[in-house]
Design brief:
Layout: H1 10-29, H2 32-36, E1 39-47, E2 50-53, H3 55-68, E3 72-84, E4 87-100, E5 103-119, E6 122-132
Parallel strand pairs: 1-6
Antiparallel strand pairs: 1-2, 3-4, 4-5, 5-6
Helix pairs in contact: 1-3
């Protein structure tokens, strides 16, 4: 899915673009509260078919990531943002590495497809789907 080319106001695009690195930093740090705050209260993260829905589940997911994979580092790139009915759509490529004593090792790559909504003047992920590369 590629976002529509309809333009969003520049300030909205900048705010949405900032969601992507904030997501990466929060999940890598295991900051469940900051991570969940990037989503709508009923937001959904789908990671290769495993769904995490709602604030508590999203926070728990983020807390678990660096415990399971110490040194994890998410890098989102090639962000494309466009409009959608009720908000915005985005896509981004993702590389996930674990940084260890011998340097970084890539553990997965893929693409995020996002539905992003504005809540009380702030942009949040409504749904975020990660599809790993084959």
């Amino acid at each position: 899915m590629v976002p529509a080319d309809d333009p969003l106001p520049s300030a909205d695009v900048v705010e949405i673009e900032h969601l992507y690195p904030r997501y990466c930093h929060a999940v890598d740090a295991g900051d469940g509260q900051a991570f969940a705050a990037l989503f709508a209260a009923d937001g959904v993260l789908d990671v290769a078919g495993t769904r995490h829905s709602g604030t508590a589940a999203l926070a728990e997911f983020a807390l678990s990531v660096p415990l399971a994979l110490p040194g994890i580092r998410h890098t989102a790139s090639n962000v494309v943002i466009g409009t959608s009915e009720g908000g915005a759509m985005g896509t981004a490529d993702l590389i996930v590495q674990v940084v260890g004593p011998d340097g970084p090792t890539m553990i997965t790559s893929g693409r995020y497809t996002d539905l992003i909504v504005q809540i009380d003047g702030a942009w949040r992920f409504a749904t975020r789907t990660f599809t790993p590369d084959a």
